[in-house]
Structure formats: C-alpha cells, structure tokens
User: Fold this.
Amino acid sequence: MLETPCLVIDPDKLANNIHQMAETLRPYNVKLRPHTKTHKIPRIAKKQLNDGAVGITTAKVSEAEVMAQHGLSNIFIAYPIIGETKIERVQRLNRMTDLTIGVDSLMGAEKLSAMAEADQRPLQVRLEVDTGLKRTGIPYDQAVELAQVIHNLPALRLTGIYTFRGALLQGKPTLDLERAGIEEGNMMASLAKRIREQGVPIRDVSVGSTPTAAHAAKVDGVTEVRPGTYVFYDRMQAQLGVSSLDDCAASVLVTVVSRPSDDRIVIDGGSKTFATDVQPNTPPHHMTGFGHVVGYPDVVFERMTEEHGMLKVTPDHSFQVGDRLRIIPNHICSTVNLHNRIYLEKDHGEYEAWEVSARGHLS
Assistant:
C-alpha cells in the first residue's frame, strides 16, 4: 500500500493527453516543443518525443542537464542565462546537444557572445519578448533594435523569438482563450516580420502555453508552441475550460488524520505537498480552495500549514480517520516539484514508482 501523501498518475490519461495535444496541432505547420518543467521526468519527455514533439523546453540549466544525461538532445532553455558559471555549463551542454538558450538583454547577450567566442563554439539563442505578462523579456517595442544588435554579435546565432503570455487578452486575464492565443500569435508573427525586414533572418517564432497553444498555432507565421501542463492537466486548466477534471492524470493521495469537529477534517498533506502559488479566488480562475477533492465537489480544501491540510465538510459527510482521498491540485507544475517520485497506477492495485529526476533543479 502506498504511503501518503503521494502523487499518483493515471497512465492512460497521461498517454491520452500527450497524444491529443500532438493530434490537435498536427493540421498546423507548427512544431511541438513541450515544456518539461511540469513533469521534470525524462521518461515522460521521451513519450512526448515519440508522439511527435521535435524537442523539449526547460526553464533552467540544471533541468536541461538532467534531460541531456538521459539522452534528450534537442533542448531549448527558455530562460535568460546570466553568470559565468551558468554560461560554462551551457557551453558544456552545447558540445553534446542541439541547444538553444534564451536571452532578453544586451548585457546578457554580450557576455554569452564573449564566452562563446573564447570557446570557439557559437551559441544558438532566441530573443525573449514581453507581450504583456511583465515578467522576463525585452519590451515589445524594443525587440527589433535588440534583435539587430544580437544578430551582429560574433559568436551568437539568433535563430528566433519567443514569449510566454499565458491567458491574457489585451493585457488582462481572460477566459477567452481563442482570442488570447490568436492575439499572442499575431503579435509575435508581426514582430518577426519586422525583424526580418531589418535583415535579421530569424527562423523560429515560439509561443503558446497549454491554454493558448492550439489557438496560437493557427496563426500564419507561428512556427512552434511550448505547452507544458497538458501532460497532466490540473484544476486551473479545468477551470479555464482547457480540459475537464476527468482529463487530469495526476492527483495527490492523502489520508484523513483527524476529524476534530463535524465541519472539518485534516489530511496529511499541507504546503509541503500541494502548490500554493495559485491562490483561491483570484482571476481568471476564481477557484474555491487549494484543490478539487475527487468525488466530493462540495468539500472545500480551505487552508494549509506545512504538514496539515484543513478541509471544510458538512456534518452529513461520513469521513473517518484513516480514510483516503484524492485531490487534484490547483497547479500541478509546482506540486510535482515537491515530490521525489510519482506513482503510476498499474493493474490489481499495484504502482510503479518513477523518480522526478529534475526535481529541485533550480539553477
């Protein structure tokens, strides 16, 4: 019997989610480069490649190192690489993989170029563009100028542009994912056209998260999408209408450890088990609580401490100490990073443990 709390995966739903995204994108002339930050597991990345992905995306150098150690060779690190030691690690990866990295500043680009020139091995880079999320990325109206400068640096090969925008429409959170995806795609395709007009022959226009990938892919000029959450889905994606709760391949198995009152049960999973980065009652999701309790839609996972989860119930619920529940977390990506392994359900109540190999690889 599994010890709780633990992260359990339905392998049929996992396989179906991987396949359905590939099939959805197949009619369009775009490449699928899934983001592995969601699962952090090379075996799942290989399943994605076997179902049509051209390569993978990571957020950090250390994630890319793990994936490369397990034989994945076409990698895009979608993050600015800053600092000499990280650049040295990137250079080592560049010798063993088909590597592309993100850049969003002149200072970062110049340092990359100087070290790559000394190494006598050019680096492929993509320019990150801020299209409204106000995270990393050169401001949209400055991208053409910076692209020209990077193109002229001696040891960098500017292959394209990319963005992460999420579910934004005209700068605001939205549930209109089709318009959001098309707007994102049009912004980047238009920018790529203006960069090419200035003599910079970029190839890649990379966009699209799980909510918007299928819609952004319809835009002429988009060449690649990078969804991640779709392998498992989560409550947030179900709330956005991207999936149903039944599509969610991952759930956290927990045990009721206390029922101190008629209206409250306590489970053995708290903030060290469930992600807390997607808060309840925030736009555009407006979810109640920190997760969906499978089979009990009226139960509210209302608060957590480190080791305890407090669920609001009604007196007519017959929960007892020792009962086991499954909870679909609000955000699966950050939840996975809290677990050393996942457990794939097998026949006859058996499970297969897979290591989350890139868990905690933050540098």
